[in-house]
Each structure stands twice: as structure tokens, then as C-alpha cells.
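May I ask you to comment on the folded chain given beneath this request?
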Amino acid sequence: MNDYGTRIASDTVRLERVLPGPIERVWSYLVDSDKRGQWLAYGEIEPHVGGSVEHRFHNSKLTGHDDPPPPEFARYDGEHLMTARVLAYAPPHLLAYTWPGGGEVPSEVRFELAQEGDDVRLTVTHSRLPNRDEMVSVSGGWHTHLGVLADRLAERSPVSFWQTFARLHDEYQRRIPRS
């Protein structure tokens, strides 16, 4: 499996990871605020379609390295609040919600979980991205956050968030065509 996200449509990127299970454990890292806060963002998710989603991001403190973002991402230093709406909620297999971002209309993120023996395949699909720059940023962000999640589930110490994100952002600049 290739760890890099794949552009599957002009406005959509998909990433997959095989993570240590069971599926209920991985699901809990998607919906439980304290567990999600260890790899993405803290905040409550109301467990029904139409429910609210709150994410409180603080990427500089996510991995324990407390590294500052590169200058071009300095606006993301500190805590940032994102609010959204649940689009799908089917434990422990499917979670989807809106994702406010760089466009007038929110994009959408979809998490799909499938048990594979003792492991779980997590597929993250982020769609309705308004432009290539947003797709590059989202791809690098999800790739970095999913690496932190994999480390947390494997009980490893994650590497520096911002150093990893900067490297991956540059890689996605090369991988995602400008067309």
C-alpha cells in the first residue's frame, strides 16, 4: 500500500492506512474527543446525521515536540476552532462531516473503516476541495495526522508534526498535477 494520498477526482483526494485493530478501537479514535485530540483535534461530535462537530486544533502541541510551523503556515500556530456538521454516522464503519476550508462551500471528509483480520483499513476521502492549493494542503495535513494516529495506535512516540507536514506538503506539491 502506498502511504501517499491519491487524487481520485478533480476535487477529491483519498488516503488509506492499515492500523492495529480491533475496529471499535480505531472508531473510538475518530469519535472520542480525548482520543481524537491525540492525533487530530479535540472537540465533541454529536453522534447523528445533522449533529455538530467541533475540532480544536493545536498542531504545534500535537506530538509533544512543540515545534513552530514553517513561516508560510504561521497562521496555523496556536489553537484553531473548526465547526462542522455530521453527514453520516454509522458506528463503527462510517463517519462523514463537512469541513470548512478555503472555498465558499465546505468540503467534506469521509472516514470508512473495514476490519481486515486483526487490523483495520481506514480510508479517508476528502472531497469538494475548491482548488489545487487546498488539495495539496489537505493531502499533506491528512498524511501527517494519519501518521500520528498510526503511531498512537501502535504505542509509538510520533515525530514532529510541523517538520513532517512541511516535508509532505512539498511532496504533494510535486505529486498533484497543476491541471
About this structure: The CA atoms of residues 33 and 42 lie 5 Å apart.
